């Protein structure tokens, strides 16, 4: 009995794994369009049930959360967080139909194969193969598979509230995303940033006014412009009092990891079509800013006349969408209150925050033994030191698992087109992903 | 022979005048839709020809400029500036078809009746009636009737360049607009503000970027926000160096007129749906600001995601439309150069001014004897002291008539709906307008 035998089984059962994955990929499960909930949970119930898991479907106001548990009487538990919903598709832009999985050039093309159905089958097949060889899994296994990740995990909090023991009774949670970069090196994420999303509106006048009368009325577009301009200066220093409160100083170890992180500035510049990074930053300074500092960003803004030619008006209303990426220590509710207070104190009470939504940052320290175990496993299986991100640039609902080390590893690649047409993964990466999971369980 | 006899003729010929006006109003002459140029100039040629004018049609790249001249061997000349084009229509919003003039409740309803075909017929009929009674007009008369006022007088400058003697060889130009306010008092405008219209764009990144990477790229929306925010402070002080250069100090007399001007703040607040005037200003302070200070105004702004829900991106491009109302002494070209330089010096070279268009403010001092004559005439005919605006809030191409005193009087009312559905004038106001013109010629 050895891991090599498990690897052999994984290769031998490649066809079975592919069949299972293809069956899953054929279900159009799009929460945004209210499609495929029941078909997905039925499918999951069957395949996890056949693998001996205790399955359960937790109903919510939206798509159900499916859970599966394999109790092996161990004192350790690993939980896998994934989701069975996918992004909507625009059929015309796909080379092969998004819900008819197709293999070309060693890749599987289908909606959801990278994000995130591929991971679910990958993880299940690894566990099954390990048990085939060793007879028993050395840890307890749990799966939490939600159906609304692509629309903001609307009911995951409700699920967690009602299943605290199940969610928090675990030693490690393997999160949904991760994969290989352009050089084929596996990227591991030890956390996610928090996010605060704000929708803003101001309605300063009853009607649009002829701009010959601009002296008499508050221009909604200008008021919003000033309100956004005072939130941060052009060096990205956020001017909202207390915005940086409670952010802990980084440890020496954390700084070491950040300073040595390979950020690939040149690749980034090429991708984004820019000559230099914002503010001319590079190297350590840029990396510390990226990993350690919160941000305020305008996602969209609109007001007044946007058509051809000229229209000389004072617009009566203006809108914006703003997001803040938060770092550990910050709290979304607290931040939105601070922005409100700052505007109120500076004559911007009329800027309405019409909607807000937010969640906190979460990270696992690289010194955590379980983080080290995951890093070591990836090194062993892939033959390369992985790139370890202390925090991903993006955000996710990891904060719903407080106290649980959450780490993202995955089987996608830099050209996987998650959320985009022609989503794909390499079959070889997928099999390697299974080996990684099997090895992780073993160790 | 007396003016009263002229007034009688005007009343007697009311039907002839209405028939002429209705014929004119039935021509859909919409420069924006390339409609009715030839029909209009043919019509004008006929009616001015029949009245003994020397007519001429000056071709341009757009709609022709029609001129008519009545040389009476006087050493004085009055010129009437008007236009034969009208605003586009939305038929559905009209109670009667816009190009089928209709009389209801003492008003004529038709597109262009207020702006500006009514004035053309009014002025021509007044001159004809005067000559019927007195046999001769005591001044030379000129008409300059352009066909593109509603789309920005695109070729009027070209016409003026090629007809300098005709345009500038006049003592007084009666401009196109003016009329009665809500209380039935005639408003006279002694000038117009200048205008600078800017279209702005910035394109900071090659593509929209995930907002988890906002540290690396210049957010186009934020860059434009900051660029607009630095143009003026919230007290409306414009921060562009040199913006206020060359604006002459107001004379004592000018201040007296401004300070005594009846601005009707309460009516304005009601119309605009506001509780208080911007910055809490009122009275003299507000009036001096309105008449004497230039403005910067955002007409429209847009960037990034404007749809439902959240999309977390760094927008790669952003747009705005901005107008400045200029006062006498300022020059549009000079101002756009100063804005450019200010932005260049403050790290906003990337804000492109993709288009700009502008013209200068023009005013006639109220002490000018011809202005006094017009004011006196209106008082005599209407029986009320007119309200005299030193400058209109809006702008127009009066600057093309340098050195010529240009004064606006007209026959519309505060509910005339120029540019809007159900455009109308009162027949009585129109006849009174004819009397005013006849009286002005006489004196």
From TrEMBL, chains A, B:
Q: Which GO terms describe its cellular component?
A: cytosol
> What are the BP-aspect GO terms?
lysine biosynthetic process via diaminopimelate; proteolysis
Q: Which InterPro entries match?
A: Cyt/Met_Dipeptidase (IPR051458), Peptidase_M20 (IPR002933), Peptidase_M20_dimer (IPR011650)
Which ranges does the record mark as transmembrane?
A: none
Q: Give a Pfam family name.
A: M20_dimer
Per UniProt, the keywords (alphabetical) are: Hydrolase, Metal-binding, Protease
Keyword Hydrolase carried by entry:
yes
Output the Gene Ontology terms for molecular function.
metal ion binding; peptidase activity; succinyl-diaminopimelate desuccinylase activity
Q: Where is the Peptidase M20 dimerisation domain?
A: 192-344
- Is Iron a UniProt keyword of this protein? no
Entry-linked Gene3D superfamilies: 3.30.70.360, Zn peptidases
> What is the name attached to this protein's record?
Peptidase M20 dimerisation domain-containing protein
Q: Which organism is it from?
A: marine sediment metagenome
Upper classification of the source organism reads: unclassified sequences, metagenomes, ecological metagenomes
């Amino acid at each position: 009995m050895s891991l090599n035998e498990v690897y052999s089984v994984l290769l031998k059962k490649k066809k079975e794994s592919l069949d299972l994955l293809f069956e899953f990929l054929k279900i159009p499960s799009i929460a945004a369009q209210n499609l495929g909930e029941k078909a997905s949970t039925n499918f999951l119930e069957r395949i996890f049930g056949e693998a001996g898991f205790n399955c359960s479907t937790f109903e919510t106001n939206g798509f159900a959360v499916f859970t599966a548990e394999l109790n092996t009487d161990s004192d350790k538990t690993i939980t896998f967080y994934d989701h069975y919903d996918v992004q909507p598709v625009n059929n015309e832009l796909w080379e092969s139909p998004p819900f008819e999985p197709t293999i070309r050039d060693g890749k599987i093309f289908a909606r959801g194969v990278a994000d995130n159905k591929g991971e679910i089958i990958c993880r299940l097949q690894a566990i099954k193969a390990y048990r085939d060889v060793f007879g028993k899994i050395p840890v307890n296994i749990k799966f939490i598979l939600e159906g609304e990740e692509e629309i903001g995990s609307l009911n995951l909090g409700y699920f967690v509230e009602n299943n605290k023991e199940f969610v928090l009774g675990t030693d490690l949670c393997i999160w949904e995303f991760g994969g290989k970069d352009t050089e084929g090196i596996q990227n591991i994420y030890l956390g996610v940033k928090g996010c605060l999303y704000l929708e803003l509106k101001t309605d300063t006048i009853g009607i649009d006014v002829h701009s010959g009368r601009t002296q008499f009325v508050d221009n909604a577009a200008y008021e919003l412009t000033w309100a956004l301009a005072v939130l941060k200066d052009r060096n990205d220093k956020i001017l909202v009092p207390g915005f940086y409160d409670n952010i802990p100083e980084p440890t020496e170890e954390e700084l070491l990891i950040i300073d040595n992180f390979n950020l690939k500035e040149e690749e980034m510049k090429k991708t984004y079509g820019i000559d230099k990074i914002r503010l001319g930053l590079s190297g350590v300074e840029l990396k510390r800013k990226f990993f350690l500092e919160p941000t305020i960003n305008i996602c969209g803004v609109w007001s007044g006349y946007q058509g051809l030619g000229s229209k000389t008006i004072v617009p009566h209303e203006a809108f914006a969408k703003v997001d803040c990426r938060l770092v550990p220590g910050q709290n979304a509710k607290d931040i939105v209150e601070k922005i409100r207070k700052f505007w109120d104190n500076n004559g911007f009470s009329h800027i309405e925050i019409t909607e807000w939504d937010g969640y906190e940052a979460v990270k696992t320290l690289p010194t955590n033994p379980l983080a080290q175990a995951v890093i070591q496993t990836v090194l062993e299986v892939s033959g390369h030191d992985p790139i370890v991100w202390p925090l991903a640039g993006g955000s996710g609902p990891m904060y719903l698992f407080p106290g649980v080390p959450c780490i993202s590893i995955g089987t996608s690649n830099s050209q996987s087109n998650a959320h985009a047409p022609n989503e794909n993964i390499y079959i070889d990466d997928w099999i390697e992903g299974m080996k990684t999971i099997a090895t992780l369980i073993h160790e």
